[in-house]
Design a protein that fits this description.
The structure holds 2 protein chains of 2 kinds. By secondary structure, chain A is mainly α. Chain A contains 13 helices and no strands. In chain A, helix 7 packs across helix 9. In chain A, 45% of the residues are buried. The chains are: A mainly alpha, B mainly alpha.
């Protein structure tokens, strides 16, 4: 787009865009700043300059054992995503490279399972989990999150695989490659970027999932979502410590998210917007 | 290409996903349907009996039910309006030739990655708190009376928080669509003497229609299930002022230990979600097939 723009207009647009962007980002920024304040400073009125104490971070770890929920979040999000990939990979593969008349219907049906309200099956899941002794266990929640994200994983992989040209497969077959050689030497290397993107987006989704993680855990398997939610009924004032816990809970995924903007659009619109 | 052999192989490869999702869809839903016709309270698990349609009647005649449906509607439509209109405006702004576009994008997209409890607690304590929040400081600076957001405008407060979380998503998708708009077309329109408003209505908006439908469809699915934001801020109150259907069912089921009532509510939620999905899919279908 080679439109000529005056420097003045450009500066005007730039200022407007930055003001809007900073306003939207402000709550996150303010939580970050507050996490370096003392509790007295945190409630002493608006201020963007903290005294720079790390005390809150230390207190959160020492008093509330921050490390356990953090590790639970890592295990649950990565574990459920890898599990979902193992189940979804063959399916996406088959649908992309050996489509039948029903492939589209199956894909739409998978998507429709996402429309079922979670709360409608809250009780059955709760009772099944209770009877199987899965409440508050990492394995139970990992399976749960895997099921939640499976349709998205299948869809994402499918849209990526579909873009691999079929001619390459035929060429490989002409050269005498068997189906497994085809998969290992031709498809796998071409599919890696798509698989990586799918992994990234689903780790983010699983990390932030805040219905089942809160409903099905109490302490042992509680990830950061449940841990932070437990701060909602505090004893006394705790702004700065809450900010420290919040900052630690969102920082890793925020940074991952910044790298996944493109995949986010693709993955969450099921390939409809690229 | 698809010989009988590969067809069989394809079926085997799809089987795990299909079977898992089938089980995931049918078993819990069948249980919910079954429970919805039972008198079953988790506090008295020995006294289970057939209830007929009592649970539905109970749920349906509860005044909180209609309020929760209304709140759900206001919440979904409110957030959709804010995010779609705001998203278009911000996407247009970022699409201008600005300095530091990459960083602006990163700042704008960030709230989407903040987990719901954190987002809600930051807003509740640091932004909207009537005593110590930034908005209260601002009000005092101008000599105004600070607003007690969650007491005075509970549903609006939840809408603001949820809209903040979803605005980045709408913006990002609309921006992506915007950037695929042909520059030459824009120039041609400009040369034909179309002004900025005309170009927006006749060129940009039609081009964005597909992205807008996608945003509405996907956000609606997620917005019907808003839960954590309500849990950590208003807890559904005061009264039922900020209770949506999801939260009402949660309350009946988990806090009231009423399995039958919660299940009946769940079935109602499924029916409503299906009605929404049906109309959405039909509206979107046309747009997506293009």
């Amino acid at each position: 787009m080679a439109r000529k723009v005056t420097t003045g207009a450009r500066i005007g647009w730039t200022i407007a865009a930055w003001v809007v962007a900073l306003l939207i980002f402000f709550p996150i920024l303010y939580a970050l700043i507050t996490s370096f304040k003392t509790e007295q400073e945190a409630i002493a009125g608006f201020s963007l300059i903290p005294s720079g104490t790390f005390e809150n971070y230390i207190t959160v770890e020492e008093q509330r054992d921050y490390f356990t929920p953090f590790m639970n979040s890592v295990i649950l999000s990565v574990g459920s995503t890898i599990l979902a990939l193992i189940v979804a990979l063959p399916a996406a593969w088959a649908m992309a490279f050996a489509p039948t008349k029903r492939t589209k219907d199956i894909l739409m049906w998978m998507l429709s399972t996402k429309m079922m309200p979670s709360v409608a099956v809250l009780l059955p899941i709760f009772i099944i989990f209770r009877n199987l002794g899965l409440l508050d266990t990492r394995i139970g929640l990992t399976v749960m999150l895997m099921l939640i994200n499976l349709p998205i994983v299948v869809w994402m992989l499918y849209t990526y695989f579909r873009e691999i040209p079929g001619e390459i497969l035929e060429a490989a077959r002409m050269d005498g490659a068997g189906i497994w050689q085809e998969i290992v030497y031709v498809l796998a290397p071409m599919g890696v970027p798509g698989i990586a993107s799918t992994l990234l987006l689903n780790v983010i989704l699983a990390w932030n999932e805040a219905f089942w993680t809160i409903q099905l855990t109490t302490t042992n398997a509680a990830p950061l979502t449940a841990f932070i939610a437990s701060f909602s009924s505090p004893q006394g004032l705790f702004w700065a410590k809450l900010s420290a816990a919040s900052t630690m809970a969102i920082a890793p995924i925020l940074i991952l998210g910044w790298f996944s903007q493109k995949q986010l659009v693709r993955g969450l619109t099921f390939g409809a917007v690229k | 290409m698809a010989t009988q052999n590969t067809k069989t192989l394809a079926r085997v490869m799809m089987a795990p996903s299909v079977i898992l999702l089938l089980i995931w869809m049918i078993v819990p839903l069948a249980m919910t349907l079954y429970y919805s016709f039972q008198n079953y309270n988790l506090l008295t698990p020995m006294n289970v009996s057939f209830a007929g349609f009592f649970n539905y009647q109970y749920f349906y005649t509860d005044p909180a039910f209609f309020q929760s449906i209304w709140n759900t509607l206001v919440l979904v439509l409110g957030v959709l309006a804010i995010t779609v209109i705001g998203g278009i405006a911000i996407a247009l702004l970022i699409d201008q030739p600005i300095f530091g576009q990459g960083i602006v994008r990163i700042l704008v997209i960030s709230p989407f990655f903040v987990m719901p409890p954190v987002a809600a607690l930051i807003w509740k304590n640091m932004i909207m708190h009537p005593g110590y929040g930034v908005l209260a400081d601002l009000a005092q600076f101008f000599g105004a009376q600070p607003i007690d957001w969650f007491a005075q405008y509970p549903l609006l407060s939840v809408i603001i928080i949820v809209a903040w979380q979803w605005l980045p998503f709408a913006t990002l998708i609309l921006l992506t669509a915007l950037q695929s708009l042909d520059g030459e077309q824009k120039e041609a329109a400009e040369m034909d003497g179309a002004n900025a408003v005309q170009r927006f209505i006749h060129l940009t908006l039609p081009h964005l229609s597909r992205a807008i439908t996608v945003v509405i469809l996907i956000q609606t699915i997620f917005l019907l299930g808003v839960y954590a934001e309500i849990l950590v801020t208003t807890n559904g109150g005061p009264g039922y002022a900020s209770t949506n259907l999801t939260f009402l069912i949660y309350r009946t089921a988990r806090l009231g230990y009423d399995v039958g009532g919660g299940a009946a509510g769940g079935i109602i939620a499924v029916v409503l979600a299906n009605i929404v999905a049906f109309f959405l899919m039909r509206a979107v279908g046309k747009n997506l097939d293009k």
